[in-house]
């Protein structure tokens, strides 16, 4: 009987170990920065992608409030929303990097509920928008350059049209002068 | 000068004493060594343990496997020797331990407030240690403090300092505020037959 119980416990412990390594591998594998926070916003777990993106050490992140790593006021706002509404999708914010530089991100968050106990925290994931933002700036600059070119073209166009009109007017004037000259010649 | 002395006799006595601890706690030691000194220091700590007469490979630790309680103390003493750590540094090591602890992740559900966390410490202790009893004597929500008592675990004073830091680490993770911990009564100082820790946050 005792042996049977011991075997059960052993199997359960092995199962927990396997589950832990599975979660750990999954958490480490994803390239998306992820973290889990308690209802006060204290970071209880982060994945290697979050560590890499922010440049902070795991020891510096875990046990800190999420607001230390996000644009002022955003962490509190998003956390409040996710705890109230269960999930938040696609909120744009900024993650602060260690030292200088920020990362523009889209945030997705999901609250974690435990049956009979209610919400005990929330998962956060961040999609890096750096490249998208860089492309946006590139597109804006190209548009600006294009607009400048268009303006220049219009200017040239206006000038060219103006010249043509002037030519026609001059031609008409020459014709009129010729006619008048002819008149004078006849009168003489 | 070493802050934590231990004799050969005490080591052997400790390793033969009853009581086991969950491997996850030893894994936090491994993480600490790697973070502070990398693979090189890990080898040095393992060499230190070998010199103590009880070789051990940190890489073979299994989170949910149980190891002799003495192993945990020897690990801490070996680390303190390799890194030449004083009491404050051991406390700091304890403070950082919950950040990488598998046990903490497993019991995150209780990490809502310091009160809810410390109310659970007794049962958490029982699940991961086959020796010692950790009890919450009182929790004062208004004054934001608690007193915890550890009974029947008198292996070595290094664990008192480590545990003090560990409690701070736990409370800080939950609350994020300034946390202090003081061992008010200690078995090793002859003050009582238990250890009493007073935490404020």
General description of the model:
The complex is a heterodimer of chains A (188) and B (201). With 188 residues, chain A is of the alpha+beta class. Chain A folds into two domains: 31-128, PAS domain (Beta-Lactamase, 2-Layer Sandwich); 130-188. In chain A, 58% of the residues lie in helices and 22% in strands. Chain A has helices at residues 2-29, 48-54, 58-61, 74-85, 130-187, and strands at 34-37, 43-46, 87-96, 102-114, 118-128. In chain A, strands 2-1-5-4-3 form a five-stranded antiparallel sheet. The longest helix of chain A is centred in the C-terminal third of the chain and has 58 residues, at 130-187. The model of chain A has no long low-confidence stretch (mean pLDDT 89). Chain B has 201 residues and is an alpha+beta fold. Chain B has a single domain (8-200), classed as Alpha-Beta Complex (H-NOX domain). In chain B, the strands form two sheets. Chain B has a four-stranded antiparallel sheet with strand order 3-4-6-5, covered by helices on one side. In chain B, helix 1 (8-16) packs antiparallel against helix 3. The longest helix of chain B has 29 residues, at 23-51. The A-B interface holds A 13-14, 16-17, 20, 36, 38-40, 42, 44-45, 57-59, 62-65, 114, 117, 120-121 and B 35, 62-65, 96, 98-100, 102, 104-106, 108-109, 111-112, 169, 172-176.
Question: Please, what is the oligomeric state?
Answer: heterodimer
Number of strands of chain B: 6
Number of helices of chain A: 5
Low-pLDDT runs of chain B: none
- What fold name stands as the CATH topology of chain B? H-NOX domain
What is the number of helices of chain B?
7
- How does the major sheet of chain A shape up? 5 strands, antiparallel
> Which class best fits the helix and strand makeup of chain A?
alpha+beta
| Overall body shape of chain A | rod-shaped
What's the average pLDDT of chain A? 89
The CATH level-2 architecture of the largest domain in chain A is identified as: 2-Layer Sandwich
Proportion of β residues of chain A? Answer: 15-25%
Strands of chain A, total number = 5
Instruction: Spell the H/E element sequence of chain B.
Output: HEHEHHHHEEHEE
Number of structurally distinct domains of chain A: 2
């Amino acid at each position: 009987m005792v042996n049977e119980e011991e075997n059960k416990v052993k199997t359960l412990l092995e199962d927990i170990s396997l589950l832990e390594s599975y979660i750990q591998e999954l958490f480490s594998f994803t390239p998306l920065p992820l973290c889990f926070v308690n209802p006060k916003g204290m970071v209880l777990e982060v994945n290697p992608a979050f560590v890499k993106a922010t440049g902070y050490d795991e020891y510096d992140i875990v046990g800190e409030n999420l607001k230390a790593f996000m644009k002022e006021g955003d962490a509190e706002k998003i956390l409040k929303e996710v705890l109230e509404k269960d999930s938040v999708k696609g909120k744009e914010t900024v993650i602060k990097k260690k030292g200088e530089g920020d990362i523009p991100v889209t945030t997705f968050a999901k609250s974690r509920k435990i049956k009979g106990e209610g919400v005990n925290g929330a998962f956060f994931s961040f999609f890096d928008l750096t490249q998208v933002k860089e492309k946006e700036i590139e597109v804006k600059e190209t548009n600006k350059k294009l607009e400048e070119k268009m303006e220049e073209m219009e200017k040239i166009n206006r000038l060219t049209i103006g010249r043509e009109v002037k030519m026609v007017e001059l031609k008409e004037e020459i014709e009129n002068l010729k006619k008048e000259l002819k008149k004078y010649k006849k009168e003489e | 000068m070493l802050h934590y002395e231990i004799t050969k006799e005490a080591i052997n006595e400790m390793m033969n004493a009853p009581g086991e601890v969950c491997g996850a706690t030893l894994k936090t030691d491994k993480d600490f060594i790697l973070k502070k000194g990398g693979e090189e220091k890990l080898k040095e700590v393992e060499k230190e343990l070998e010199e103590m007469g009880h070789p051990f490979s940190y890489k073979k630790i299994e989170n949910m496997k149980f190891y002799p309680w003495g192993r945990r103390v020897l690990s801490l003493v070996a680390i303190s020797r390799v890194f030449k750590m004083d009491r404050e540094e051991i406390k700091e090591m304890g403070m950082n331990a919950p950040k990488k602890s598998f046990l903490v992740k497993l019991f995150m559900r209780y990490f809502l407030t310091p009160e809810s966390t410390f109310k659970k410490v007794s049962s958490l202790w029982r699940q991961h240690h086959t020796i010692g009893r950790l009890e919450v004597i009182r929790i004062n929500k208004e004054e934001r403090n608690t007193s915890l008592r550890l009974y029947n675990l008198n292996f070595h004073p290094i664990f008192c300092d480590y545990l003090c830091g560990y409690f701070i680490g736990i409370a800080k993770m939950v609350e994020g505020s300034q946390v202090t911990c003081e061992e008010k009564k200690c078995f090793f100082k002859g003050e009582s037959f238990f250890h009493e820790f007073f935490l404020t946050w």
